[in-house]
Specification:
heterodimer, A: mainly alpha, 4 domains, 25 helices, 6 strands, globular, B: alpha/beta, Alkaline Phosphatase, subunit A, three-stranded antiparallel sheet, 13 helices, 18 strands, about 20% strand
């Protein structure tokens, strides 16, 4: 089931489900499933012993058999290569790659395909983007002036590089929380702390009084605490800022104890909007956007009643949330230049003993591969979050992830090699009846391409994708009359796009006050908060962009030319190549005759090239292009 | 294997829980699954008084003590300190001194109810008996960006859905051919926060405000590229419709595929309907004159007011019309010279707002259209730079008209200097709760679940201001 349907069904239910249970007591809270150690789970027994391709499948099949459901047959090779290529690198396979894969008779063909894709530099661009959603990444400050952040992009490139290098997850966590305190701290690990700096800011316009400034600082700190806790351990600790959490066993004191961890930090680097960013005299240390400490002492931290900086309550020490720690975690005496509090937090989060961290991350990976997490509230593993649909599988995956040293690539491979992943995505009545949400995975979920994948796939199909990686964000054309929606740090008016605008979408400059329409309309995150789950909405304004944007028109034109160059003069061959370039497969006979008839009719009004451009445009707008089977 | 569900079966499953209206359109002639359309009309919680809202947003902060809340004490204390003022009330620091400033405007009472209005709103004064003046508004921030966020979304930080998003999420759309939440900007462009002011926040993109421009292309990407003719576009869409229909039919469980078919047809119709809606050629000379379309001062805001009427007439749920754009001082942000600033902005808006109310009355639409006027905060009773006023959130005035709200009344009061709301105080969540109530929505029931929590427009507060209801 698509997320649109999920969303709408709970619109209907919501009126009846608004009443919450109150937050459980600390003792009750400690019993919550997500806070328990990872279970060492034996492989469940299954009847159809020939179906499983690896351990994951035992967990899936056991549930299906219990429900009286059959797994779906394996998808054909064309579908598989398109699915896994879009999934891992966010670009469609070339016609030659499809042909090679179909012809490859080796029993290792599929595995070799996965290995090739995991080794591609485009993998980091695709999977790094998922992380950037969580990290609320943007290139501007938002708020009043939407100032440029001259070196924000270094964090984006750091993330992409980390994914490509398969950095162990514990290290990835530590660098982003405590990049100045980790062993081997260097410029890259300082850049990593951009994670704590990506939120909206209003530095130049936060009020002039000491009260307003204190409140603003507390708001900035809240962004760091809320994001860190929801991203790494899947808890909505930010809700305990004004009062004890209403639904979780988390106290306001827990919140301010985390504030104490970050309370000694300073914001390093050029201020947003600095005009001297390109000045050679600016030293290299200023060319990062980091969160660091420069002295070991940290000022006292107080609970702020109702979240107001002016309402100081009791003093609190740095500590981890009480419900997650049987005994208080020891914060070592500061040595050297920093308090070591964030390093201690990072070590606690990334400890193999912290079950949340590993469950949360494997669930995120599962969600992106399968279209739906085993826990459907990916950044909320608290008592108000969803229960896991397959808790044994979740723990099995988390245990594997810990055991392999927190490497993502082997985790991807295990999921993608499973028979569960290779299933067809077509539905059937029995499945719809027993498990309409497909929680048990009796078929693969069809997914709509995400905004970036759609744009990048259009560029790949047209042969125009500029694969230049990294560096400052680029600004593609936005229709000039839209530009007045943001008066600050204005987007340039661009008459015609060229190859410098046809880079991958992950490198588009993210301007908070004016997001790229083709991204925003297709549910790219708004960047104000961490985004763990994108909507898959379907609205007419999306259709308008795909129908009328000059970008699509330009690429349809290129696609028509490319197909002609590759296929020669014969109409049927050209059509076939256009299908291969866009849908990764040949047209059926019916589609072929419909397409040829259409082309002949269009040629009657214009010429062959114009007719081919029309057909290209239809293909780029088609549901078969936009949906991944 | 059992045969796949028929489309009707899917419809019945997918449609369960929606209002009967939605079901009818599901089973419409083209058999499209519009249940997946997030804009499908939904039943309100109780019988509504209003169907639509026109929010006239005076960005920058219009001065309550110079427009609707006369304070003779400011004349008495003119040039002297007032006892209530605190140094930290100033947003502009030292430029704002504790020196009372009398209003440069004369006030007179209007209508049977004797509503006080300054001389700069002569045309609006004709409608005094339709207006419900709320003189006891207060808000949290004295800073434009957070205060705009609060007025629009209930919260001083970005990230929450705006009121128009909540309303369209709660009720869906009544227009088949136009977006449900439309934003009309000042000629100087958007206020600070830009498009975040009409953001869907954590809701699906379907609920975000769609800015309409009053010249050129009314909606983003509404017109095809120059080298694509109308017949060419239709030919493409015909083949696309055929292929997308076949694909949707062979995948009936994927309701989004059917929604996508609908979206393309609506997009196609929008090209005409939005263009038709913004084409004012058909309006009579009398209408053009009443909205002031032929005078440079009133032309832009007048056009937007007329557009607001046309949008509401066509079933658009929530229209926000901004007066003031870009930099604060270019909007209602009268730091340096209050009179000069408000002379201009009142002249730009007085005639058009009066015309809008006249027009809505003539057509009967005012009964079902709630008109709201106000900014993100008011202005300081004390002077900034001698003749300007600073930002001030502790007390200010907004008014409402139509949509089941009592006319000809004054609700609440500020103290004798207009410094703080002291009587029948109305918070922003109270205002939001009241607006939702008029639309048939209970602000405590209208919730959206995000990261494990049910969010409300009014968060944890807000009471419907019953005294305002007709």
């Amino acid at each position: 089931m698509s997320r649109v349907f999920l969303h709408l069904s709970f619109v209907c239910l919501i009126v009846t489900t608004i009443c919450h249970a109150a937050a459980p007591s600390m003792d009750e809270g400690r019993k919550h499933w997500a806070f328990q150690p990872l279970l060492k789970v034996p492989l469940p027994d299954v009847k159809q012993t020939t179906w499983p391709k690896n351990d994951i499948d035992h967990f899936i099949l056991a549930q299906l058999e219990t429900a009286g459901l059959q797994p779906s047959a394996e998808a054909d090779r064309t579908t598989l290569i398109r699915r896994v290529t879009l999934d891992l690198i966010g670009l469609p396979p070339s016609p030659a790659e499809v042909a090679d894969f179909i012809q490859d008779e080796s029993p290792r063909a599929y595995e070799a395909l996965i290995d090739r894709l995991l080794a591609s530099p485009h993998y980091g661009e695709r999977w790094g983007r998922h992380w950037l959603d969580l990290a609320r990444y943007a290139d501007t400050s938002g708020f009043h002036n939407d100032l440029d952040r001259p070196y924000a992009w270094k964090y984006r490139d750091y993330v992409i590089r980390s994914f490509n290098g398969d950095k162990p997850y514990a290290r990835f966590i530590a660098e982003q929380i405590a990049g100045d305190e980790v062993d081997g701290a260097n410029e890259q690990t300082l850049i990593a702390t951009g994670f704590c700096r990506n939120g909206s800011s209003n530095d130049d316009n936060m009020g002039k009084t000491p009260e307003a400034i204190a409140q603003y600082k507390a708001d900035q700190m809240d962004d760091v605490i809320s994001t860190t806790s929801s991203v790494f351990i899947g808890l909505t600790i930010g809700c305990a800022r004004c009062h004890d959490h209403k639904t979780e066993p988390i106290l306001a004191k827990d919140y301010y104890s985390l504030m104490a961890v970050f309370n000694g930090t300073e914001r390093l680097g050029l201020p947003s909007g600095a005009t001297d960013a390109k000045d050679k005299k600016v030293n290299d240390a200023a060319k990062v956007m980091a969160l660091v400490e420069t002295k070991p002492e940290v000022a006292a931290t107080h609970v702020l009643l109702r979240g107001l900086a002016a309402n100081k309550g009791v003093e609190v020490a740095a500590a981890m949330p009480a419900v997650l720690t049987a005994r208080p975690v020891n914060f070592p005496k500061p040595t050297g230049k920093t308090s070591l509090r964030r390093r201690t937090l990072a070590e606690w989060i990334s400890s193999p003993e912290n079950p949340l961290t590993w469950r949360v991350m494997v669930n995120r990976v599962w969600q992106h591969h399968f279209g739906q997490g085993l826990v459907t509230t990916p950044s909320n593993f608290g008592v108000s979050g969803a229960a896991p649909t397959n808790p044994e599988l979740l723990d099995f995956l988390a245990t594997q992830f810990v055991a392999n040293g927190g490497l993502l690539k082997p985790l991807h491979k295990m999921m993608l090699m499973s028979a569960a992943y290779r299933q067809q995505s077509s539905s059937h009545a029995k499945g719809q009846q027993v498990d309409p949400m497909n929680h048990r995975l009796w078929r693969m979920n069809k997914q709509r391409m995400e905004a970036e994948v759609l744009r990048d796939s259009i560029l790949t199909a047209s042969g125009q994708l500029n694969r230049t990686a990294g560096g400052p964000g680029f600004k593609p054309r936005i229709r000039p009359d839209l530009l007045d929606a943001s008066q600050r740090n204005k987007w340039p008016a661009i008459q015609a796009e060229g190859t410098e605008h046809w880079r991958r979408s992950v490198y588009i400059y993210v301007k908070r006050q004016l997001l790229m329409p083709s991204m925003e309309l297709f549910d790219a995150p708004t960047t104000t908060d961490s985004c763990a789950l994108r909507m898959q909405s379907t609205v007419p304004t999306q259709a308008l962009v795909l129908m009328n944007d000059d970008f699509v028109e330009d690429q349809a034109d290129h696609l028509a030319r490319l197909a002609k160059v590759e296929a020669g003069d014969e109409l049927a061959k050209i059509v076939e190549q256009m299908f291969m370039l866009t849908l990764s497969r040949k047209p059926t006979e019916v589609r072929m005759s419909q397409a040829v008839e259409f082309l002949k009719s269009r040629e009657h009004f214009s010429d062959r090239h114009s007719a081919l451009r029309d057909l290209s445009h239809v293909l780029l707008n088609s549901s078969e292009f936009v949906y991944i089977e | 294997m059992m045969p796949p569900l028929t489309r009707r079966q899917i419809l019945q499953q997918a449609g369960a829980g929606f209002g009967s209206l939605a079901l009818q359109s599901l089973l419409g002639a083209d058999g499209l699954l519009s249940s997946t359309n997030p804009m499908a009309p939904r039943a309100p919680h109780f019988a509504p008084k209003a169907k639509s809202v026109i929010f006239l947003f005076m960005y920058g902060g219009p001065s309550h003590v110079d427009l609707f809340d006369p304070k003779p004490a400011l004349a008495k204390y003119h040039g002297r300190p007032i006892p209530l003022w605190k140094k930290e009330d100033a947003f502009m620091g030292g430029k704002t001194k504790n020196v009372a400033m009398q209003s440069p405007y004369r006030f007179t009472k209007h209508g049977q109810a004797g509503i006080d209005m300054a001389e700069v709103y002569p045309n609006l004064a004709r409608h005094a008996d339709s207006l419900c003046m709320i003189r006891s508004m207060h808000t949290e921030s004295n800073n434009h960006a957070p205060a705009l966020f609060q007025m629009n979304s209930g919260f001083v930080q970005p990230g929450r859905p705006s009121m128009g998003s909540w309303v369209t999420y709660g009720l869906g759309s009544e227009s088949e051919n136009l977006p449900a939440f439309v934003v009309l900007l000042d000629k100087l462009g958007a206020p600070v926060n830009g498009a975040l002011n009409w953001s869907n926040g954590f809701m699906p993109a379907a609920y975000q405000g769609v800015p309409f421009r009053s010249s050129g292309e009314p909606i983003a990407y509404l017109t095809p590229p120059k080298n694509v003719s109308a017949s060419q576009q239709r030919a493409r869409l015909d083949l696309l419709k055929q292929w997308n229909t076949e694909y949707a039919e062979s995948n009936p469980a994927e309701t989004a595929l059917a929604a996508r078919l609908n979206a393309y047809e609506l997009a196609y119709r929008m090209q005409m309907s939005a263009t038709e809606c913004t084409d004012l050629k058909g309006e009579s000379a009398a209408v053009r004159q009443m909205y002031g379309l032929d005078h440079a001062t009133t032309a832009h805001f007048g056009k937007n007011c007329l557009l607001a009427r046309r949008l509401v007439e066509r079933g658009v749920r929530f229209v926000q019309v901004y007066s003031g754009g870009n930099e604060g001082p270019k909007a209602w942000d009268a730091h340096d010279d209050l009179k000069r600033n408000h002379d201009l902005h009142c002249a730009e808006t007085d005639g058009p707002i009066a015309a809008l109310l006249d027009d809505l009355k003539i057509s009967g639409l005012l009964d079902t259209t709630l008109v709201v006027w106000g900014g993100e905060f008011g202005r300081s009773p004390v002077a900034e730079n001698g003749k300007g006023r600073d930002h001030h959130p502790k007390g200010f005035t907004m008014w409402m008209a139509g949509g089941g709200i009592k006319g000809g009344m004054i609700h609440g009061a500020t103290d004798e200097f207009g410094y703080a709301a002291i009587e029948n105080r109305v918070s922003v969540p109270d205002l939001h709760a009241t607006i939702l109530h008029q639309l048939g929505l209970d602000h405590e029931q209208l919730t959206y679940r995000f990261t494990g929590r049910d969010y409300r427009l009014t968060d944890v507060s807000g009471d419907v201001v019953k005294a305002l209801l007709a």
